[in-house]
């Protein structure tokens, strides 16, 4: 039997409507599936390209929060509109009533002794004229 993950996220892929010179965003809903307080941290392979708020936080038991991931305005289209950027959402159980400002710097280090769950997210770019858009 597999244990229930600490958190679930929706959607499970970041989809950005890509337009040149325009900033766009995607909201992620993060749900705490446990009776524990869960801290999270968002990492990306392209930190200069995205703005993530909040990028760390603590979610109360059975609660949820919204993380807004903003794609900065881009000056050119990526090759074939493919995006190789990835996001990692790490989570770990923390003590009751822990505030995000109280998290030790090594909370998400593998050698901290904390049990850390990793959720990987892919990024997809959608153009207003793409076939997927025509189906909506």
Write a structural description.
This protein has 136 residues and is an all-beta fold. The chain has a single domain, classed as Immunoglobulin-like (Sandwich), CATH 2.60.40.10. It is 3% helix and 45% strand. It contains 1 helix and 9 strands. It has a 5-stranded mixed beta sheet, with no helix packed on it. The chain has a 4-stranded antiparallel beta sheet with strand order 1-3-7-5, with no helix packed on it. It is elongated. It starts with 6 loop residues before the first strand and ends with a helix. This is MSP domain-containing protein. Residues 6-126 form the MSP domain. Belongs to the VAMP-associated protein (VAP) (TC 9.B.17) family. InterPro entries: Ig-like_fold, MSP_dom, PapD-like_sf, VAP.
Give a brief outline of the structure.
It comes from Medicago truncatula. The chain has one helix at 131-134; strands spanning 7-10, 13-17, 24-32, 37-44, 50-53, 56-59, 64-71, 86-94, 117-126.
